[in-house]
Every structure is written in structure tokens, then in C-alpha cells.
Design goal:
Elements lengths: L5 H24 L5 H11 L7 E11 L13 E12 L4 E10 L16 E8 L2 E6 L2 E4 L4 H9 L4 H8 L3 E7 L2 E10 L3 E7 L5 E8 L7 E13 L2 E11 L2 E13 L9 H4 L6 E6 L2 E5 L5 E5 L4 E4 L5 H14 L5 E5 L5 H4 L2 H7 L2 E5 L3 H8 L9 H5 L4 E5 L2 E5 L4 E6 L10 E5 L4 E4 L18 H13 L5 E4 L5 E2 H7 L4
Parallel strand pairs: 17-18, 18-19, 19-20, 24-25
Antiparallel strand pairs: 1-2, 1-13, 2-3, 3-4, 4-5, 5-6, 7-8, 8-9, 9-10, 10-11, 11-12, 12-13, 14-15, 15-16, 16-17, 21-22, 22-23, 23-24, 25-26
Length: 494
């Protein structure tokens, strides 16, 4: 390499020094973004000064989070005939009422099959409590708390209040040639968020991350557009949201009311709720574990336990595992069988990992669980994150047998289900007991048969017939233990 002449070297040094000094001078003189000032201006621009409560109503489309037909697919499409949210900023409370129906044939969720009508539901959260309306009663729903609190404090006005409360930092962002002020903060133990505020003071986007029992720290993007003045309060007429990269909401807002009367009180049974697991012995060394919306089954082997399903979240799963070990003292839980990948049925698998159990799931679901179990879990670390244990996963393709020489457990992959691919049921041939989830949920005793057979019920019978299983009783992972005859009656089989 040739030598650089001394003149050139001096010139290069001088030029570099000049650039450095200009950069430093620019940094020294550039005005720092004042988050508090941005927040005040945005609150004034959006009509949020003195705003204590707000309700909005709209309609549109969405997706059922965590209920994909195949693992790693997008969330199944929904139509919302109505969606109403009422938020109480002073008390940290939210209520959501909706009517929704299925817009595609496959996938899960508590929604009728395509063409089967509309599901209506109401959900609440306040402070550290979440619950659902169940007729005239309240059903605790702790697994829904994080998402509902997130929706409350990432709403257009809520995010400004949360940013102020949590002393947000401010920075400049440019997207598509437009400059925004980004307000970043953490709601401790709940979520992290960055709100994008445009030059007019409108919140146009919130990028957030919240904890989830399956996916760990999960990315959410919510966009707000087409702002309109509703009686002095600026509110978007279009709300879009994606979770874990897939759309969950696209709502056209029709009506907004500010400072409406709100009374979201925590019911006593919700405030005093604790996970309860009841055990019913259904055969020697086999127990049906109920006491909530989701059931489990404990099966005693010579030197260990097998548990079918650890659902929902740490709290429910830990209670199930504790009850199982109480029923068979001194025996560890060696295997946990997962019926399918839907989040309500997979929400406690991380708890089983912390317990040291091997997960038994479909070959289709194994790569998905390996991926999501590797996600960070820092916002609100669960038992698996705190244990530092990695998941051991056994995959099932078609059929898997677990045996200790005296008891045999068969795990069968169902065929033809529109609810989930990789859908599995558990067969105890000696006891003639079949454990299944979601394919059939028994109606209350003495209920008349449905006017038309449910397709999932029919598919379950088809799989029982295909495998030639001589079933005596069904152990549903929702509902009560029933004889096979009740399933046959539900589909019109004599």
C-alpha cells in the first residue's frame, strides 16, 4: 500500500476533526425531547383533559388469538356484529361486550362452527382481577387479566395516562417520511409500550409487548386512524390490532361517549377466587380433575404419574399438578399429555416444564412449542422462566403408547377435525376410558339433543369408530364424565 503524502494526511485529520466537532456541537445544541410537554400537548389536542371514562362501539372483523387450526397459522377469522368497550381510567377498569361469529371453517375458540350463529359475551377487568359474565353470575378469568389491562392502558387516551404515570421517555421516529414523537414506558409486571404521536398530537400507533402463558413476551401492534371529534374528544374511527404477527382486530368505530357513568365493581367471588381442583376416582389409579372451566386427568403408573392436560396458565396448572401428586404420594409427574396447541389447553405447559415433565404433543405442534418456549419471558417471569429448565418434548404422529407393563396409555391423533390439526385423544384400553378435549362438551343432564348434530361431535364418533375403540365412558376436558351413549344421542345415533 502506498504512503499517503503528509499534506493528505494532515487534510484527512483536519477534516475528521472538523466533522467530529460539528457532530458534537450539534449534539450539544439539539433540543432534548420533553416527554411531559409532548404528553400535555397530546392530551389537550385529543380532548383528554378531564377525561375519566369513555365508551366506544363499532363493528368489523378480527381473529381468535391462540386458536389457529394449525400451529403457527394466523388466527381464525371472525366477524364482529358489535364490539363495545367501556373504560374507567380513574379506577383502572374495563368492560367489553361483543357479538361475533366465525368467518372461516377451521379453528377453535368458544364460537359456533361456521354458519352456526353468533356468540355473545361480556368480559371485565379491574385492578388485579378479571372475570366474565356467566348469566347472572361472574366467572373468574385470571388468564384474561394481562390482555384486558393492556387494552385499557394502550387505548388512545389510556396510553397517554399510562405514559405520564410511568414517566415515559421521548424520542423521534420517522416512518414513510413522517416524523413522530415516540413515548416509551413500562407498566411494571404488565407490559411495555411505545406510543407514536403525530405532529397534530394524535396517537397513531402503539407498539407493545405483554406476557403470555404460551408465547412468553408477545408483540402487539395497535394502529389508530381517521380521527374524528366526538363531542370534544378526538377518537379514531378505525382501530387495527395484531398479536404475535397476526391480525386480531379491525374495527370501524361508530359511536364514542366521554365521561359516561361506569360501575365496574369486582364481585366477591372474583375477589376471593383461588384455583380449586376436585378429584373424582373413575378407575383404579385414574382420577378426573375438575373444579374449573378446564379439566385434567391424572393416571398413576408404577413409579410415576401421567397427567393429561395442564391448561390455562401457571395458577391452574400448578394446582392440577399439586393435586395429582397428592393423590399418588411420592410419584413424580413424568409426562404431561397436551390434547392440542390451542392456548387455553397449552397455557400451563410451561408449568409442566418447570416441574420437569416431558411434554407429549403432536408432531405438528412440537416445532411450534420449541419456538415459543424459546421466547423471552421477562415482563412477568413464570415458573418455567424462573426455573431455567428447557422443555423435553415427545412428538406423536398417528399413535404413541406409554406403558409400565401393567397399565397402557394410548395417545391417538384424530383425523378430519375442523377444530385443530394435530388434535389428540387419550385412550385407556383396560379401563375403557376416553379422554378428549373440545370435540365434545356434554350438555347439562337431561338436555334435549341439539336440533342438528355438531360437526365436531360427529368427527369424534368417526374417530372412535375408525380406531375400533370400545368406549365405556368419556372424560371430557370441558364438562362432566358421561357414558358413550350421551355422545351418540347428541349426534342422533340410537
Amino acid at each position: 500500500m502506498r504512503d499517503v503524502p503528509s499534506f493528505d494526511r494532515r487534510s484527512l485529520v483536519l477534516a475528521a476533526a472538523t466533522v467530529a466537532s460539528l457532530w458534537l456541537a450539534g449534539c450539544a445544541t439539539a433540543p432534548a425531547l420533553d416527554a411531559a410537554s409532548v404528553l400535555r400537548q397530546a392530551e389537550q389536542a385529543m380532548g383528554g383533559v378531564g377525561l375519566k371514562t369513555l365508551s366506544f362501539t363499532g363493528s368489523g372483523t378480527g381473529g381468535t388469538f391462540g386458536q389457529a387450526w394449525q400451529p403457527a397459522m394466523g388466527w381464525p377469522g371472525l366477524n364482529y356484529s358489535v364490539l363495545t368497550r367501556v373504560v374507567d381510567y380513574d379506577n383502572g377498569a374495563i368492560r367489553e361486550d361483543f357479538g361475533r361469529s366465525r368467518s372461516e371453517p377451521n379453528g377453535g375458540g368458544a364460537i359456533p362452527l361456521m354458519g352456526g350463529g353468533e356468540a355473545r359475551a361480556t368480559g371485565f377487568a379491574r385492578g388485579a382481577f378479571a372475570w366474565n359474565a356467566a348469566g347472572n353470575a361472574a366467572a373468574p378469568a385470571p388468564v384474561a387479566l394481562d390482555a384486558r389491562i393492556h387494552d385499557l392502558w394502550t387505548s388512545p387516551h389510556g396510553v397517554l395516562k399510562a405514559a405520564a404515570r410511568n414517566k415515559a421517555s421521548a424520542s423521534s421516529r420517522v416512518e414513510n417520511g413522517v416524523t413522530y414523537t415516540a413515548l416509551s414506558f413500562t407498566e411494571p409486571g404488565r407490559f411495555t409500550a411505545t406510543a407514536w404521536v403525530d405532529s397534530a398530537g394524535m396517537v397513531t400507533k402503539v407498539e407493545s409487548r405483554l406476557p403470555h402463558p404460551v408465547t412468553g413476551d408477545t408483540d402487539v401492534v395497535t394502529t389508530y386512524g381517521d380521527y374524528k371529534d366526538f363531542g370534544g374528544v378526538k377518537f379514531p374511527q378505525r382501530i387495527r390490532q395484531s398479536q404475535a404477527g397476526s391480525p386480531v382486530l379491525d374495527i370501524a368505530v361508530k359511536d364514542v361517549k366521554a365521561n359516561v357513568a361506569v360501575d365496574i365493581a369486582v364481585p366477591d367471588n372474583v375477589r376471593n377466587f383461588a384455583e380449586r381442583v376436585s378429584s373424582e376416582k373413575v378407575a383404579d389409579g385414574v382420577w378426573f380433575l375438575a373444579g374449573g372451566s378446564h379439566n385434567s386427568v391424572a393416571i398413576e403408573m408404577k413409579d410415576h404419574l401421567v397427567v393429561v392436560e395442564t391448561p390455562l396458565y401457571d395458577g391452574r396448572s400448578a394446582a392440577v399438578l399439586a393435586e395429582a401428586k397428592k393423590l399418588a404420594p411420592g410419584k413424580p409427574v413424568r409426562y404431561v399429555i397436551n390434547s392440542h396447541h390451542h392456548f387455553d389447553h397449552a397455557g400451563g405447559l410451561r408449568t409442566a416444564v418447570a416441574e420437569g415433565a416431558t411434554l407429549v404433543t403432536s408432531a405438528m405442534a412440537k416445532p411450534y412449542f420449541e419456538k415459543v418456549f424459546a421466547n423471552p419471558n421477562r415482563i412477568s417471569p413464570d415458573l418455567m422462566a424462573r426455573s431455567g429448565k428447557a422443555a423435553s418434548i415427545m412428538s406423536v404422529s398417528g399413535k404413541q403408547v406409554l406403558s409400565d407393563g401393567s397399565r397402557t396409555i394410548e395417545v391417538h391423533e384424530m383425523q378430519g377435525s375442523v377444530h385443530a390439526q394435530g388434535f389428540m385423544m387419550v385412550w385407556l384400553p383396560k379401563e375403557r376410558l376416553l379422554v378428549q378435549a373440545d370435540a365434545y362438551t356434554p350438555a347439562p343432564p337431561n338436555s334435549p339433543p341439539p336440533p342438528a348434530p355438531n360437526g365436531n361431535n360427529v368427527n369424534l364418533v368417526q374417530n372412535i369408530d375408525r380406531l375400533g375403540l370400545n368406549v365405556d365412558r368419556l372424560l371430557p376436558l370441558h364438562g362432566r364424565v358421561v357414558p358413550l351413549s350421551e355422545l351418540h344421542a347428541a349426534i342422533g345415533r340410537k
